[in-house]
User: What shape does this take?
Amino acid sequence: MRIKLLDSYRGIAILMVIFFHFFSRWVKVYPYGSDYNFFEFGKLGVQFFFMISGFVILNSLEKTTSILFFLKKRMIRLLPSMLIASILTYIFLINFDDKNLFPSGHYIKNLLISLTFIEPDLISSLIGRRINFDYLSSVYWSLWPEVQFYLFVSTIFFVFRKNFYLVFFVLALIISLVKISMDYLVFSEGSFLYIMKNIFRVFNLSLTLPFFCIGIYFYILYTIQVKALRVKRITHIFFSMFVLIQVYYYWGDFVKLSFYFVFLSLFFLMIFKKRYLLYLENKLFIKLGVSSYFLYLIHESIGVVLIEKFARNNFPFFSILLIIILCAISILYTYYFEIRIAKYLKNHF
Assistant: This one.
């Protein structure tokens, strides 16, 4: 099942993130400063990605026969592009980042650790901080929650297949509520609960789990809509709980709340009123969505360094042109290399 609108949604999400990074995130670096700082909301595009991921991963799991096969497919999807993007970013930064805007990107150790998809601070802690690791590029942070989600959801799926949704939502809700409770409590250093709080900080799936769960809920709605079945009432209750949890986190921030409900609305429209979104099913958005992973990996470090060097203190023509170029490169890479690499690996491994 491939839903073109989901690819278009990915396209929207990646554009949000790029505009945030190129116009709002690094205002002290841009030659045009904060003159075009209108895209602070763009960082929420990552949360939109998490919701899309929840939807897509359930579809993938239902087509998979074992947890090992599922994880192999995920690594084939993620690792080759991560390797290529990391090498490109590293080579670019050591040659062109002469102002050291991205110091962590200048070390081969960070390139190697990024390929594990694991939180670098966790690995540093495990080896007694004899080596301090960091992400090669700061955008890589979102891959660690993704990998945790893959392990969490696939384990529950294959162990509790008959009651998967109930078990998954119950455990996800418990984890989310425990995380909120720990935010309010103060523990003495070295106590069991203090250690648990630090574990939740490093294994940070709890912060993004409500987004993944909402994506899974919409997958349930979509599949049941196609089959003309009814959704169990408990499923709606779980959905409401996860929505309320995220409202709790966003409470007091009108922009975040607004975009959160826009994302929810886009999913409801995709399932029940798709005709209102047909204009989004165009080739550009779809191709941008399909190539969004590689574009996400390369855009920030490379883009910000180039903007600092070549943009001018006026209307940012260069930044807009750079967005177009990076999108074109990512589309060409995805369709001419990534898809072929993935096909080869699936046939030979």
The chain has a mean pLDDT of 94. DSSP finds 14 helices and no strands in the chain.
